[in-house]
Amino acid sequence: ATMPHAIEVSSLSKSYADGFQALKSVDLTIRDGEIFALLGPNGAGKTTLINAICGIVTPTAGSITVSGYDNQKDYRQARALIGLVPQELTTEAFETVWSTVSFSRGLFGKPRDDGHLERVLRDLSLWNKRNNKLITLSGGMKRRVLIAKALSHEPRILFLDEPTAGVDVELRRDMWEVVRELRDTGVTIVLTTHYIEEAEQMADRVGVINEGELILIEEKNELMQKLGQKQIILDLN
Ligand code: ATP
C-alpha cells in the first residue's frame, strides 16, 4: 500500500451562515514533508481553508483527509497529527512559557517531562525563558511560544496562519529560518501569506487562492512565470 498524503482535500466548499461562499470546490494535495504556501489577498479564503482542514470550520461539501484519516469521522486521530499556529497572537498574560506548553501537551494525554517539551523550547530558543510570563515577551518571542504550543503534542503537520503578518524584516527572516528548521525535523508545513516573495522564499510549492478558488498550484520556481502566462493579477499588499 502507498503512504497516504499528508493532506487530501477534494471538492471542498464552504458557505458561511450568511450565505457567503468562502471556498469553491477546492482540490488540494499536500505531500508529506513539504513546505506548502497558500498565497492570496485579504479575504481570499486562506484561513477558511486551513481551519476546515484542522476541523475548526465545518465544510458545506467535500472531504478532507489527514494522513488518510477523515477529519470529521476520524477527528481524534486527524487532530492529533495537526498543530495550528493561529493568526492572532492570543496568549494568556500571566501564564509562563512552560505552563503554556505543558498544559497543551497534557491535553493530548502525553507525559510533560519526557524531554519533548525541552527539545521544542531549545529548538525555538525559548528554554532560557521558560519561566517568564508571556506578557513580558516580545512579539517575536510570543510567536515562538505559539509555535512551541502547536508542537507540544508532536504533530506531523504544522499550519501557520500568516506567521509574518505585521512583522518587521528581521523577524520575518527569523520566522523563515524557524520554519525551515522545523521542516528539516520532518514536519510537513502549511503556511498562508500575502507576500509572493515570502511564498517563493519559504515554500517548495505554492497554491494561489483568490475569491475562494484555488487557481494555481506550482513549484515555487515556476510561480512568477505561470502567474504571468495566465495573466493572473493578484491584489496583494
Ligand atoms: P486574510 O488574508 O484577510 O486573513 P483570508 O484569505 O484568510 O483573508 P478568510 O478569513 O478565509 O480569508 O475569509 C474569506 C471570506 O470569508 C472573507 O470574505 C470573510 O469575510 C468571509 N468570512 C470569514 N469568516 C466568516 C464568517 N464566520 N461568516 C461570514 N463570512 C465569513
Automatic annotation (TrEMBL):
Molecular-function GO terms, alphabetical = ATP binding; ATP hydrolysis activity
Q: Note the superkingdom of the native organism.
A: Bacteria
Q: Name all ABC transporter domain ranges.
A: 7-236
Keywords on record: ATP-binding, Nucleotide-binding, Transport
Regarding protein family, the annotation reads: Belongs to the ABC transporter superfamily.
Identification of the protein by name: ABC-2 type transport system ATP-binding protein
